[in-house]
Design goal:
five-stranded mixed β-sheet, 39% helix, alpha/beta, D-Maltodextrin-Binding Protein, domain 2, 9 helices, 258 residues, 13 strands
């Protein structure tokens, strides 16, 4: 009898454990998944590391707001731009949010979210430069700094102009070389140029935007592995909500992206 009783207790205990485990599985939702987004945090005001070591910026806030709207958990990784797309292809993260321009070449190998910014390529020069380049064509014969692998880099390479392109791991390094007199100009996204020329107190009065490539208006979006419709749909759902409730515009005002 005692043996039977113990056996019954074991059966009941195992059944209870099974039910608890089953209930946990059934109660698990898709929102429990953590979505990892890579960002090269050297693109103020889109994303950068503040004096406290925290990742901040327009796209950082945007991801956090998408998390609030969709209920998904997001983790942001600070990744070097050189190799950021290779990391996506290798599965190191689920997406990239780092001022990524939507191009036909990239669309062939990547999924993109709906666009949330449109930028041009801007030419930065020293304020004291009385004869700066005002168009991309006027950069011919000059030494120009760019972020390696960026749209500005690709644009100059494809321009057919006799430009000595100097590639850097960050725009900050290119700007420093410009200030040191080693470059004639720096070409970068207009929103990034505005940060260095207008918002950054360190460079106040030292730099100016002398021109823009108006023929190269680029949509900016997040990107994901080709065929990853699931993550793409989650991001698009969040972006649509932020556009409808006005928070997307609020973030643009906050980070002086008008």
């Amino acid at each position: 009898m005692k043996k039977i009783y113990i056996t019954l207790l074991l059966i009941l205990s195992l059944s209870t454990i099974s039910l608890v485990a089953q209930g946990t599985k059934e109660n698990t939702t898709e929102a429990d998944k953590t979505i990892v987004i890579a960002s090269n945090c050297e693109w103020p005001p889109l994303e950068f590391v503040d004096k406290n070591g925290a990742m901040v910026g327009f796209e950082i806030d945007l991801i956090n707001e998408i998390a609030n709207e969709t209920g998904y958990k997001f983790v942001i990784k600070n990744v070097s731009w050189d190799g950021i797309f290779a990391g996506l292809a290798n599965g190191a993260y689920d997406g990239v949010a780092s001022g990524v321009s939507v191009t036909e070449e990239r669309k062939a190998t990547l999924n993109f979210s709906t666009t949330y910014l449109k930028v041009t390529q801007a030419i930065i020069c020293l304020s004291e430069n009385n004869k700066p380049a005002t168009t991309i064509k006027e950069l011919a014969g000059k030494k120009v700094g760019v972020l390696i692998g960026s749209t500005g880099d690709i644009m100059l390479q494809d321009s057919g102009l006799d430009v000595k392109i100097m590639s850097y791991d960050s725009i900050a390094l290119a700007v420093e070389d410009l200030l040191n007199g080693n470059l004639s100009a720096v070409v970068t996204d207009s929103v990034v140029a505005g940060e260095y020329v207008v918002s950054n107190k360190v460079f106040a009065g030292k730099l100016k935007v002398s021109g823009k490539s108006e023929d190269n208006v680029e949509p900016i979006a997040m990107c994901f592995k080709k065929g990853d419709s699931k993550t793409t749909d989650i991001i698009n759902k969040g972006l649509k909500a932020l556009e409808e409730n006005g928070k997307l515009d609020e973030l643009k005002v906050k980070w002086a992206i008008l």
